[in-house]
Amino acid sequence: MPMPPPLKPGTLRAEQIILFRIGEQLFGLSSSSVQEVRGADSLSGGATKIAAAGIDKVRAFVRRGQNTLFIVSGAAHFGLPAPDGILAFVLRNTRTALLVDSIERMTAMTRLQALPLSFCHEERQWYRGLTALDQTVVPVVRPEGFLSDDELMTLDAALPPPELSNDEADTEADQETDPGTELN
User: In whole angstroms, what is the distance from residue 79 CA to residue 161 CA?
Assistant: First the structure.
């Protein structure tokens, strides 16, 4: 009986990732996870402020038809000493727009290492794993890791009714916080 031919070494499957910075920290994110990249100003122009107890990383939201996007400060999420970013990644299949400082470049990732045990608690939800690119270890973020189900429920409860416009919501919020305002 003839022997089967030896297996050829498989080609490494490459995944396109976007390398981006928040402050000085470099991160990676699958390019297929990003629906669009916008200037933070263009996204924030239609945003409405929101305050939800214990979720300081989200300060605004945008309604797009029936969908609500929560604008997450990447710096606040990761606990980095940086101002809010100037770019927003609208993440596919999530309700998140992530504020970042800059896009470094796009590249191919061929290996994703499991997170070491030193990553614990909520950090294990934030990252898919680590990859090495150009002698640099880069954490690869999980798009679903920016807002947990509990955080989404809390944020949904803090949303004003959809029929209120941005101006009406701002006026209503001002009246609620000013005890000297009387309603007739």
Answer: 31
The answer to whether 58 touches 155, Cβ cutoff 8 Å, is yes
pLDDT below 50 — which residues of the chain?
Answer: 165, 168, 172-173, 175-184
Answer yes or no: are the C-beta atoms of 55 and 152 closer than 8 Å: no
* Contact of 61 with 50, CB cutoff 8 Å: yes
pLDDT digits (tens, 9 = 90+) for 123-171: 888 999 999 999 999 999 999 999 999 999 999 999 988 765 455 455 5
Instruction: Check residue 183 and give its pLDDT.
Output: 42
* Burial (0-12, 13-18, 19+ Cβ within 10 Å), 145: middle
Range of the domain at 69: 15-165
Cα torsion at 92, 95, 101, 107 (round to 10°)?
Answer: -20
State the total domains in the chain.
1
Cite the beta strand spans of the chain per DSSP E.
15-22, 25-30, 34-39, 48-49, 58-64, 67-73, 87-91, 96-100, 102-109, 127-133, 136-141
